[in-house]
Inverse folding.
């Protein structure tokens, strides 16, 4: 059995935190303009603008060299999908594999692994599964992948299900696989 949590979308507040950090960095331009124009307000609060600049500069250095760490929050959990050899459990409903027509799955991120480039470590939430049933019903959920072992088990299960006649359309990021020895 493979137990995978499902989650909701990320909150906008996480993106706003990045904007605030960048706005601190922009305060250096206000400081420079104020000193050139002899603005009394900026000259009076010069120390505050210098502190804001330092905070923004440190924020940008962290973003460049460490990247974003956007860990999954337990409050965003919406449920679980349990995968078994011949069925899966989704929202307390057992779905047999003979009811499934197609599965589209995308596994591109694993918690704690590099997300690529300078984006830092992933929180494992950029994955999805879409299940098309033979009765024209469609189920779509975002998946939380917490370990490389889950990726390997899910890949092996999907390969097994593909041999039973289910069409599996999957994208698996290459470096996430654990190769069998």
């Amino acid at each position: 059995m493979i137990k995978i949590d499902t989650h909701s979308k990320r909150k906008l507040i996480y993106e706003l935190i990045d904007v605030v950090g960048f706005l601190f960095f922009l305060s250096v331009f206000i400081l420079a303009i104020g000193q050139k124009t002899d603005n009394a307000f900026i000259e009076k609060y010069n120390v505050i603008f210098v502190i804001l600049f330092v905070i923004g500069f440190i924020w940008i250095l962290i973003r460049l060299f460490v990247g974003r760490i956007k860990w999954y929050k337990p409050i965003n959990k919406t449920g679980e999908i349990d995968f078994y050899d011949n069925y899966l459990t989704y929202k307390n409903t057992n779905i047999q594999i003979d009811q499934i027509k197609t599965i589209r799955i995308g596994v591109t991120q694993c918690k704690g692994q590099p997300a690529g480039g300078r984006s830092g470590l992933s929180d494992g939430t950029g994955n999805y599964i879409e299940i098309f049933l033979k009765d024209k019903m469609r189920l779509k959920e975002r998946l939380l992948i917490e370990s490389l072992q889950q990726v390997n088990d899910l890949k092996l299960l999907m390969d097994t299900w593909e041999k039973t006649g289910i069409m599996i359309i999957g994208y698996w990021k290459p470096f996430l696989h654990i190769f069998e020895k």
User: Anything to note?
Assistant: Helices lie at 12-37, 40-44, 46-65, 148-163. Residues 12-37 form the longest helix (26 residues).
